Amino acid sequence: MSWLNERPRLRKALVSVTGLTAGTVLALAGTSAPAAHAASSTLGAAAADSGRYFGTAVAAGRLGDSTYSTILDREFNMITPENEMKWDTIEPSRGNFNFGPGDQIVGHATAHGQRMRGHTLVWHSQLPGWVSGIRDANTLRSVMNNHITTAMNHYKGKIYAWDVVNEAFADGSTQHRSSVFQDVLGNGFIEEAFRTARAADPSAKLCYNDYNIENWSDAKTQGVYNMVRDFKSRGVPIDCVGLQSHFGAGGPPSSFQTTLANFAALGVDVQSTELDIAQASPTAYANTVQACMNVPRCTGITVWGIRDSDSWRSGENPLLFSNNGSKKPAYDAALSALGGGTGNSGGIVSGQVYALSDVAAGRVLDVPSGQTANGTPLQAWDANGGAANQQWRANQNGDGSYTLTNIGSGRVLDEPGGQTGNGTRMELWDANGGTNQHWRASRNGDGSYTLINVDSGRALEIPGGQTANGAPVQIWDSSGGANQHWNFR
């Protein structure tokens, strides 16, 4: 992470370009997903099924928080220390190394079978004053190489990959940023750092890590790409590129997968190393994860923190777990995109046809007989032996939600566009991939499901107390009532 403790000096412009559309999610996700109950049920396990990892940033001071550590050890198979391996912690004064905080995190990872990413060896920020004040090239070169070698030797055999150099390029530019390393040693300091790192630990993956390099057409992206291409052509040891992936509410840019693929084509692994997304849209998380899944050399994803309250962007609620540690809808979307499944959607098989029976009424989701046009209002009615107007095919989307297509009409369960208020009646409409046609399925204790519309965030229901044939089907704030519970038969 770049400037976790430097909020007053925040300089990074979050990516604000529009993310992939919901229709793109459907295209990326493919056709039929496997039965969720047969899939891995945690992020790390689901990622491991495809040879990837799913990690998180960890602060040593939070390991004593039982909620924090429980989620960490259940969900994540890779750890990046937030600050414990940065220069100001590891070598606060010349030649005096402090590995205690980093050792605490490494010890936890070792005890729980998690791999470690070292972060970070050479970075212009969180740098002690004695380093930033050096003006003699020979002195700085010696100091830099000694720091790299000593840190890597200490953790040799315990670190899967190191962020050798972090954020060396200037914002919006193909050129390096001004830093003590750039200003005193010149452009060659990055190459020297990588060569020194390879000599120190030949087994560790060596990565370059930066932010705002996710959009392929950006100058900064091109600058990093050209550097990596040059390094590979000349035999400079570089194994991976980390794209930090701090996104705005729109999620990744539309070219994100292209960027990953183009870097990978140079012969390096690529990873999202510090992922967080403002407001944690399920679709934005699904698009980010799916882009990685679509690039064979995208080997892993790390989110920058566990709960929203642990995030450096806590006011934007950008992570997969809420402040109390509960899973957010974005968690299910990310897990689904990894190919996993949770107990919340365990029995629904993508591509399977179901009748949806309301628990309170005992009646099923029904399209009035003979009415198949766009805008037909939906109702509850007695089950009539599997008639096509009461049969719905559940197809899972890339964001983990489902589109429900009526067999009789060929049209889908639709929340009218732009109508998200309590009491809005549901209708049939042609499938268009919109989030108003996406429904998240959460498993209830009675085995039924609550269906939450992705666009409105409200639950599918029959109005309370209305159980007769012809009762309208509408949306309302989720209340946990039986009138909002649906059995898939």
List the keywords.
single chain, 8-stranded parallel barrel, 3-stranded antiparallel β-sheet, 13 helices, elongated, alpha/beta, 489 residues
SSE layout:
Layout: H1 22-29, H2 43-48, E1 53-58, H3 66-75, E2 78-81, H4 87-90, H5 100-111, E3 115-123, H6 129-132, H7 137-154, E4 161-166, H8 180-185, H9 189-200, E5 205-210, H10 219-234, E6 240-243, E7 246-247, H11 256-264, E8 269-277, H12 282-293, E9 298-303, H13 329-338, E10 353-354, E11 356-358, E12 364-366, E13 379-381, E14 392-396, E15 402-406, E16 412-414, E17 427-429, E18 439-443, E19 449-453, E20 459-461, E21 474-476, E22 486-488
Parallel strand pairs: 1-2, 1-9, 2-3, 3-4, 4-5, 5-6, 6-8, 7-8, 8-9
Antiparallel strand pairs: 10-14, 11-22, 12-13, 14-15, 16-17, 18-19, 20-21
Helix pairs in contact: 1-12, 7-9, 12-13
Low-confidence stretches: 1-38, 342-346
Question: Could you describe the largest sheet, including whether it forms a barrel?
Answer: 8 strands, parallel, barrel
**Which word captures the global form?**
elongated
Mean pLDDT: 89
Give me the secondary-structure category.
alpha/beta
- What is the first-to-last residue Cα distance? 47 Å
Beta fraction = 15-25%
Give helix % range: 25-40%
Neighbour order of strands in the largest sheet: 1-2-3-4-5-6-8-9
Describe the structure.
This protein is of the alpha/beta class and 489 residues long. The protein is 26% helix and 20% strand. The chain has 13 helices and 22 strands. It has helices at 22-29, 43-48, 66-75, 87-90, 100-111, 129-132, 137-154, 180-185, 189-200, 219-234, 256-264, 282-293, 329-338; strands spanning 53-58, 78-81, 115-123, 161-166, 205-210, 240-243, 246-247, 269-277, 298-303, 353-354, 356-358, 364-366, 379-381, 392-396, 402-406, 412-414, 427-429, 439-443, 449-453, 459-461, 474-476, 486-488. The protein has an 8-stranded parallel barrel with strand order 1-2-3-4-5-6-8-9, surrounded by 5 helices. A 3-stranded antiparallel β-sheet has the order 10-14-15, with no helix packed on it. A two-stranded antiparallel sheet has the order 11-22. A hairpin with a 5-residue loop joins strand 14 and strand 15 (402-406). It starts with 21 loop residues before the first helix and ends with a strand. 49% of the residues are buried.
